[in-house]
Amino acid sequence: MSNGTATINARNITDKEFFYGHKACAGCGGSLAVRLILKVLGERTFTVIPAGCMSAVGFIYPQMCFLNNAIISTFPGTASMLSGIAAAAKALGLKDYHVVGIAGDGGTADIGLQALSGAIDRRDRIIYICYDNEAYMNTGIQKSGLTPFGARTTTTPAGDNIPGTVTQKKNMFEIVAAHGIDYAATASIGYIQDFINKVQKASRVEGTSYIHVFAPCPTGWGIPEDSTIDIAKEVVDCGLWYLAEFEQGEFILNKNPKEFSPVEEYLKKQSRFKHLSCEDINTIISSRDKKWEKIRKAWKIK
Amino acid sequence: MIEIRWHGRGGQGSFTASKLLGASAALYGGKYALAFPSFGPERRGAPVLAFTKIDDKKINDRSEIKKCDYIVVLDETLFHESFFNDLKDNGSIIVNSADSKAYSSYDKTKIKTVDATSIALEILGKPITNTAMLGALLAVSDIVRLDALKKGMESFMKGSLLEKNIEVVERIFFRMKGESL
Amino acid sequence: MNRPLLRKYEKPKHINDYPVGPCFEAGYLVTENSGWRTKKPVVVKDLCIGCFYCYMCCPEGVILRKEKLIDIDYAFCKGCGICAKVCPKKAINMEREGGKDGI
Amino acid sequence: MGYKAFLSGNEAVAEGVRLSKPHVIAAYPITPQTVVVERLAEMVEKGSLKSEFLHVESEHSALSACMGASSIGARTFTATSSQGLLYMAECLHYASGGRFPIVMMNANRSLALPWSIYGDHRDSMSLLDSGWIQVYAEDAQESLDMVIQSYAIAENLKVLTPVMLNLDGFVLTHTYELVDVPSEEEVDKFLPPFDTPYKMDLENPKNMGFSSSPADNMEFKYQQHKAVLDARRVIKEVDEAFGKAFGRSYGGLVDAYQCEDADFILVSLGSTTGTVRTVVDELREEGIKAGLVKIRFMRPFPEEEIVQLVRNTKAVGVIDRDISFGYEGTVFTNVNSALAKADLQLPKLNFIAGLGGRDISKEDIREAFFDLIEASEGKKKERVKFLSLGVEIYE
């Protein structure tokens, strides 16, 4: 299961495309995540995608958009199907391959959490990647366990009584880390080099690895389709997302901004947050600050 | 068909006894047998039942045993007068008891007592009476030959456990055979 | 072959012409995405420095690395404009399909 | 050489699995299936079975993992029961639609509520339409043999459909009896390694489990239907080949007992069949021409076979360890439909028995036969009758 030792970058990454001709919305952050993951892992990769956006746009008979082996799993079954493939690959004596699952936020943090927990518990040799676009987008923008506070979705409409989503985003990264997983990381498609480095690192892990990549959805968030990358960068810069790793039982912060860019600007660009009051925005800022205080105190800073 | 019901408490090995008997009859006695526990969750100390059916031809009927040829009671506290109603005409009950007088008011052809606990304690050092009661059942019933039972036990136990349990079976078997001779 | 080719698909005439269960050749493309576009990215060759950042950022993988420059597979480009937006040298313009200038 | 052993139904299944050599076993424990997975875990530990054993966290994951393993060409096994079977319901349909030739043992157990760990067929019958081949075993020997046969059926390229092997909870799973355990060499000769072109392959990549629009979806469903229909022939062929190899065969989709001249036939499945056999013998001695049709496969359903067997009888009864509330037992619905399609006009009665683990006694079976006799004499009988209800139910 080698990738060589050199760091993959824009110049040396393979010319081959493994996710091509798909029918995702223009500017889809999730599809970029899938594309980059597969370019890092290469053709000898078994990919599992649960019911959701990426499966709906990638495998509509007869248009098959994955160039490597790929299969749709049940919605809750990404991790368990990965486990089955990994076990079978071992039993069949296959050599030099990767087993990767790529699921959305709902498929990971809600319906797929039990299977993911089981796979990590077994230390199955799989890579699990959650592309987080912060709501159930395939079914039309409903709230998931990873929808952030304040966001308007079709099931958390913002009005006079309720300001959209009232819950906080589940902390998947730390939930996964609490299992004692071999490798976990957060990433954003706004920081591509960091993301592909982490995928490459995950591919070399002897047990289970998990990457949580922030992947904006222009359709669901109400942003122009050309601004996916910018907004994915801005969320990190304003401190509402962070780039970190968990390895050998330790949390490591990869990027520690001296100053955050304004949260208001990040929020105001997205129609899902348009309705937020100053008070709501202050709530978001103060919970961000609390989180960063904890991170900076407890985590190793690189 | 010979039908046997075993009464014991969870942990005393009544189901093992029913299985040992069935295995010995089927594997080394040239017969057919079914052995099954009272179905349900296993709880240590709770009253449990086990059953053995033995016949010369394949046993198809898997329904519960209604009338027994033998009722074997591993734990005296579980004995109940109503057991006599569950016997076939020539059926009998074997109770593990050190106090045979307590049962003297019943029809002697229908009930036998044997002090299995003492023998088990002496040889095994534990009050596990399933093999002792198996020896007692063989002594009164001749369902399978002693050597067939010993072979059957070999497929379930090993080493000193096997040796000691065979000693238990033989001690009680010959003692009871002696009594009845 | 770095990208799958577009193929002509003929609808099966007999039941046995269908794949056995949902299991089919990987990378089998029968339709393009060009119709999704209202604007298309056009590279200004003189400005492009060949950093390939647009190549990395394209959700469709339709940007091709050519020596130091880039090329675009218009058959599958959806015209999202990410490439133009992220280009550090502003070397990609989004132009209206049919030859008219972009905004 | 093979050997004789005194095994429970569960243990016999485990032996069958050991001999079939699956690459991957994924299972979650549930009473009364647990002994199967315990024995398999012991075999893996000892090295007598070289399978990857996945300790999954749910039944849904058990079957999902089997599908993953199957998708790259591995032979797989799982086992479940009752609530667990229903928890994996989504995956059952997924596995048949994906044409994954998984073999699963189901310990037939009642469904909550009220809670019950005891046997009946409400679990498997409520998933009769999940696209799986369903077989019901009568004793431990048939359980062992059918594990091996199930792989041969499921993996046949004309079939490629998962098989659910049903054993009555406790009455079969926990009852010990004499079993012939074949040798590895014999089974290897009968059951070749699983080989399929329809898998994800590193040298020949595939996209699997895809979507299809209304323009094609129905064709895929038709294929599935045809595969299960084609399984009828494959099941018979496999059973015959098995008979040649091991000296035991079971008659394919159905087994008939004393039906040639029978006036009254009871149809049953699973372990109840043994008790019916005994009663048929008793009634024959009493001069009553009783017969038994044992349904072995509920899917594909043996409609032609049943029609042929009961064509000349005076009345037919069906024993169901299941009830579709507000209607009748599911086996009866299927049998009745087959007879109606063949225009067979004769009294047909449905006996609901053994729900929630209620014992099905010889007396219950006799009662069913005597109802058939009365029905054939023109007496009006209840069409759907609950046997051995302990209370009065008349208003």
TrEMBL record, chain A:
<dbReference type="InterPro" id="IPR029061">
    <property type="entry name" value="THDP-binding"/>
</dbReference>
<keyword id="KW-0560">Oxidoreductase</keyword>
<dbReference type="GO" id="GO:0030976">
    <property type="term" value="F:thiamine pyrophosphate binding"/>
</dbReference>
<dbReference type="Pfam" id="PF02775">
    <property type="entry name" value="TPP_enzyme_C"/>
</dbReference>
<dbReference type="InterPro" id="IPR051479">
    <property type="entry name" value="PorB-like"/>
</dbReference>
<protein>
    <submittedName>
        <fullName>2-oxoacid:ferredoxin oxidoreductase, beta subunit</fullName>
        <ecNumber>1.2.7.1</ecNumber>
    </submittedName>
</protein>
<feature type="domain" description="Thiamine pyrophosphate enzyme TPP-binding">
    <location>
        <begin position="51"/>
        <end position="213"/>
    </location>
</feature>
<dbReference type="InterPro" id="IPR011766">
    <property type="entry name" value="TPP_enzyme_TPP-bd"/>
</dbReference>
<dbReference type="GO" id="GO:0019164">
    <property type="term" value="F:pyruvate synthase activity"/>
</dbReference>
Automatic annotation (TrEMBL), chain B:
<protein>
    <submittedName>
        <fullName>2-oxoacid:acceptor oxidoreductase, gamma subunit, pyruvate/2-ketoisovalerate family</fullName>
    </submittedName>
</protein>
<keyword id="KW-0560">Oxidoreductase</keyword>
<keyword id="KW-0670">Pyruvate</keyword>
<dbReference type="InterPro" id="IPR011894">
    <property type="entry name" value="PorC_KorC"/>
</dbReference>
<dbReference type="InterPro" id="IPR019752">
    <property type="entry name" value="Pyrv/ketoisovalerate_OxRed_cat"/>
</dbReference>
<dbReference type="Pfam" id="PF01558">
    <property type="entry name" value="POR"/>
</dbReference>
<feature type="domain" description="Pyruvate/ketoisovalerate oxidoreductase catalytic">
    <location>
        <begin position="10"/>
        <end position="171"/>
    </location>
</feature>
<dbReference type="GO" id="GO:0016625">
    <property type="term" value="F:oxidoreductase activity, acting on the aldehyde or oxo group of donors, iron-sulfur protein as acceptor"/>
</dbReference>
<dbReference type="InterPro" id="IPR002869">
    <property type="entry name" value="Pyrv_flavodox_OxRed_cen"/>
</dbReference>
<dbReference type="InterPro" id="IPR051626">
    <property type="entry name" value="Oxidoreductase_gamma_subunit"/>
</dbReference>
From TrEMBL, chain C:
<protein>
    <submittedName>
        <fullName>2-oxoacid:acceptor oxidoreductase, delta subunit, pyruvate/2-ketoisovalerate family</fullName>
    </submittedName>
</protein>
<dbReference type="InterPro" id="IPR011898">
    <property type="entry name" value="PorD_KorD"/>
</dbReference>
<keyword id="KW-0004">4Fe-4S</keyword>
<keyword id="KW-0670">Pyruvate</keyword>
<feature type="domain" description="4Fe-4S ferredoxin-type">
    <location>
        <begin position="68"/>
        <end position="97"/>
    </location>
</feature>
<keyword id="KW-0411">Iron-sulfur</keyword>
<dbReference type="GO" id="GO:0051539">
    <property type="term" value="F:4 iron, 4 sulfur cluster binding"/>
</dbReference>
<keyword id="KW-0677">Repeat</keyword>
<dbReference type="InterPro" id="IPR017896">
    <property type="entry name" value="4Fe4S_Fe-S-bd"/>
</dbReference>
<keyword id="KW-0479">Metal-binding</keyword>
<feature type="domain" description="4Fe-4S ferredoxin-type">
    <location>
        <begin position="39"/>
        <end position="67"/>
    </location>
</feature>
<dbReference type="Pfam" id="PF14697">
    <property type="entry name" value="Fer4_21"/>
</dbReference>
Automatic annotation (TrEMBL), chain D:
<feature type="domain" description="Pyruvate flavodoxin/ferredoxin oxidoreductase pyrimidine binding">
    <location>
        <begin position="16"/>
        <end position="239"/>
    </location>
</feature>
<comment type="similarity">
    <text>Belongs to the pyruvate:ferredoxin/flavodoxin oxidoreductase family.</text>
</comment>
<dbReference type="GO" id="GO:0016903">
    <property type="term" value="F:oxidoreductase activity, acting on the aldehyde or oxo group of donors"/>
</dbReference>
<dbReference type="InterPro" id="IPR002880">
    <property type="entry name" value="Pyrv_Fd/Flavodoxin_OxRdtase_N"/>
</dbReference>
<dbReference type="InterPro" id="IPR009014">
    <property type="entry name" value="Transketo_C/PFOR_II"/>
</dbReference>
<keyword id="KW-0560">Oxidoreductase</keyword>
<dbReference type="InterPro" id="IPR033412">
    <property type="entry name" value="PFOR_II"/>
</dbReference>
<dbReference type="Pfam" id="PF01855">
    <property type="entry name" value="POR_N"/>
</dbReference>
<dbReference type="GO" id="GO:0019752">
    <property type="term" value="P:carboxylic acid metabolic process"/>
</dbReference>
<dbReference type="InterPro" id="IPR050722">
    <property type="entry name" value="Pyruvate:ferred/Flavod_OxRd"/>
</dbReference>
<dbReference type="InterPro" id="IPR029061">
    <property type="entry name" value="THDP-binding"/>
</dbReference>
<dbReference type="Pfam" id="PF17147">
    <property type="entry name" value="PFOR_II"/>
</dbReference>
